[in-house]
Design a protein that fits this description.
The protein is mostly beta strands. The protein contains no helices and eleven strands.
């Protein structure tokens, strides 16, 4: 049974910090293509920080320099450090864990999301 679970969300003041965690189990996960996404009310889900290949990371322009993705989902954990948060960072944050399937093609597993609310 595949499980992807986020934790660490909550209420934080503008300018503060938060660390989100993702634990994944039950599949043959890969680093490339895994990452963090978020969805604000009334908006589409967007990529925040993703791994493109071993050691390479992509960040949304809006979080560049403030957020840091780390961890190794192959080993079951991934993190997102949020620094200097702003009101526009308020959203539900989702972990996407990409895994190999028996067909030889990758498949994306999603967690249930964790709410981050930034107060001014």
């Amino acid at each position: 049974q595949v499980q992807v679970v986020e934790s660490g969300g909550g209420l934080v003041q503008a300018g503060g910090s938060l660390r989100l965690s993702c634990t994944a189990s039950g599949a043959d996960f890969m680093l490339a293509g895994s990452g963090w996404f978020r969805q604000a009310p009334g908006k589409q889900r967007e990529a925040v920080a993703t791994f493109t290949s071993v050691g390479s990371r992509n960040y949304a322009a809006s979080v560049q320099g403030r957020f840091t993705i780390s961890g190794d989902i192959v080993k079951g954990t991934m993190f997102l450090q949020l620094n200097n948060v702003q009101s526009e960072d308020t959203a539900v944050y989702y972990c996407k864990a990409r895994a190999w399937t028996t067909t030889g093609r990758p498949y994306d597993f999603w967690g249930q999301g964790t709410q981050v609310t930034v107060s001014s």
